[in-house]
Structure prediction request, 313 residues.
Amino acid sequence: MALIISCFTSMASSILYNRWISLEKSSQELVKRNEELDTKDKSLTDKIDNLNKKDEDLKLKENELNDKESKLNQKEDELIERENKLKIKEEELERKLSEISCGNGSKIIYLTFDDGPSENTSEVLDILAKNNIKATFFVNGHPEYENTYLRIVNEGHKIGNHTYSHDYSQIYTCVNSFNNDIVALNNYLESIGVGAPNIIRFPGGSNNTVSNQYGGANIMAVLTGEAVSNGYGYIDWNVSSGDADKVTNDKDTIVKNVLEGCKNKDKAVVLFHDSKPKTTTVEALPEIIKELKREGYVFGTIDKETSTLFRFM
Ligand code: ZN
Prediction:
């Protein structure tokens, strides 16, 4: 019996021991697992901290960039304002220079170009820019050269109205036809951002007689009076380059016509054409400008006041 009890006790003890060992092992594993989780938690916390720091850095950089952008915009505005002020000053100086030149009785030339724009007009503008002088363009309606109209005014030249169609049989029939053609060109110029001109040059000049066959003998007297009462100035010329005598006249003839025409004149309004066939006008221009400058002429533009200088009628 004692042996049985002893045996039983020994067995129970062995089971308990094994159970204890097993629990001890589980406990150690749990501790280890816990440590591992702690480590992972710490690592994740570190990562989150890092990301937060990076986020803050990016926000700081974004703010810096926004600041820089707004400073740049401010500077750009300031530069545009200064540019505009300089432009106004430049225009004032040019006007004063022109006034002084006229007041001193010095010699002044008004270069005028009719019937454009065409591709020749761009070359004329290049030559004028190179010589730092201004001119007046009496234009017709050529919408395919929209950029050229804009270039003319943007580069400081003047634009005058030479009717939209330049078609004698249309414009010289009666007052209404003429006015409609003038208004058509004004509307077109306004639609592309070029203001409506207040100066006119009549196709063929204010005393042309071709108009008589369409509107009668008195038509030009009526139209010139009408133009003035509608608030326009109009001007003819006192020197012709002769570039309309032929479809394309000889370059040397054009040079000679202008230089001889200007001789002994203190004020000269020179008639050129910058329509498509007038390539020799472009070729003649540098020589003409060079010689006129050498003779001491300054170059002016036509406005409503100066438009009274030369009128045939
Ligand atoms: Zn013309």
Summary: The mean pLDDT is 93. The beta strands are 108-114, 136-139, 158-161, 199-200, 233-234, 239-240, 267-273, 298-299.
